[in-house]
Amino acid sequence: xxxxxxxxxxxxxxxxxxxxxxxxxxxxxxxxxxxxxxxxxxxxxxxxxxxxxxxxxxxxxxxxxxxxxxxxxxxxxxxxxxxxxxxxxxxxxxxxxxxxxxxxxxxxxxxxxxxxxxxxxxxxxxxxxxxxxxxxxxxxxxxxxxxxxxxxxxxxxxxxxxxxxxxxxxxxxxxxxxxxxxxxxxxxxxxxxxxxxxxxxxxxxxxxxxxxxxxxxxxxxxxxxxxxxxxxxxxxxxxxxxxxxxxxxxxxxxxxxxxxxxxxxxxxxxxxxxxxxxxxxxxxxxxxxxxxxxxxxxxxxxxxxxxxxxxxxxxxxxxxxxxxxxxxxxxxxxxxxxxxxxxxxxxxxxxxxxxxxxxxxxxxxxxxxxxxxxxxxxxxxxxxxxxxxxxxxxxxxxxxxxxxxxxxxxxxxxxxxxxxxxxxxxxxxxxxxxxx
Length: 436
Hints:
Layout lengths: L3 H15 L3 E6 L4 E4 L1 H6 L13 H4 L3 H17 L3 E11 L2 E13 L5 E10 L1 H14 L9 E8 L4 E7 L13 H11 L5 H8 L3 H9 L4 E9 L5 E12 L6 E9 L1 H15 L9 H14 L5 E9 L1 H8 L1 H17 L6 E4 L4 E6 L5 H19 L8 E9 L6 H17 L5 E3 L4
Parallel strand pairs: 14-15
Antiparallel strand pairs: 1-2, 1-5, 3-4, 4-5, 6-7, 6-10, 8-9, 9-10, 11-13, 11-14, 12-13
Helix pairs in contact: 11-12, 12-13
C-alpha cells in the first residue's frame, strides 16, 4: 500500500505536467528542483531538465530580472512569510512586455525548518493591460479634458449610462441625457446633414452594433461633425468612442466623449486656404483653380460652363517702365478687377505670372457669354488706362463646356488657342474659340 506522501508526490507531479500555470519549486539555496512546462517555456527553455539544478542567474538571459527574483526570494526567506498575489514582470514575448500575478510559499519540513520555496505565477498580461487602460479611461469621469463638453461611461451589455460628466464651453454644452435613447435622439436631431460617419454611428447605435465593432477588432472610433447646440449655435464636435472591458463586471463598456474642436477646424481651414491661395493676388493658385474647375465639371456635367483665359498684354514693358513693385501692384488690382466681374461661387484664379482663369458656372446661352466677355474686357481697359504710359491691356480667350471640350485640359487648350488668336489680331480684345 502506498504512503500518503507517495500519493501526494504523485499528484503534485501530475499537476505540474498538466497545469497551465507557471509553477516552480526551489530548495533553500534557491536552486530549482521542480517546475511546470509553462514555467519552463516562460524562461525560454524547452524541457524541465533544462532548469533543474540551476539558479535564476543561470537560466535567465535577462540578468536584471534574475537579480530581482533572487532579491525577492531573499526577502521572503528572511521575513519567513508567504507573498501572495503580487504583480511582477515576467519575460517578454516577441518583444512585448508580459506580467504575472505571483504567490510564493515557504516550504518547511516536519520540524518547521525552511527547506524551499513554492512559486505559482499566472500570466495576467491581458488583464493587467486592460486594467491599466480601464483606469486611465476612468480618469475622464473625474478630470474631464479641456474643451470637452461631456464624457459618458456606457455599459454596452446592460445598455445604460453608468455615469456622465458635463461642462460648459463658452456658455453652452451638449444636451444632458439620462438614457441612451435620449443621447441618440439628441445627436441625430442636431448633427449636420453631411456628417456621414456620425449619422451612421447614431442611426445604428445599439448594443449589437457596438458589440459588432468591438468583435471586429476595433478598440476606438473617432469622427468629427458640425452639431447644433441647445442655445442655437453650431460648433465642430469630435466624438471619441473608446471600448474597454469593465474589470469588475466583465461587461463591454464604452467611454464616449464629445469635444469642441472649433479652434482646430478654424486652423485647419486657414492652412487649407493658404495652400490653395496665390499669396500675391489672394486668388486661387494654379493647382487649386484646376482642381476646382474639374470638381464642377464632375458634379455638373449637364450644365453649360464657360472658361475665360485672361493674359496681360505688354506686362514686361510695364515692369521695365514703371518697375517691378508697380508691376506687382498692377497684378493685385488686375486680379481684383477680374474677381469683381464674377459671382462669389464662380472660380477665379491666377494660373501663371500674368495669366488668369475665370470660370463662369451654368451660363444660359451665347448672349450671356458675349455680355460677360465684354464686361470683363471693359473692366480691364478701365484699369489699364491708369497705366497708359506702359501701354498695357488685356487679351481674353474663351472656351465653352461641353461644346469645346469636356475636361479641364481640353477647355484650357481651346481657350489658349482663342487667346493666342486675340493677341495675333492686335490684343486688347476677346475671342470665342471656333474650330473654323
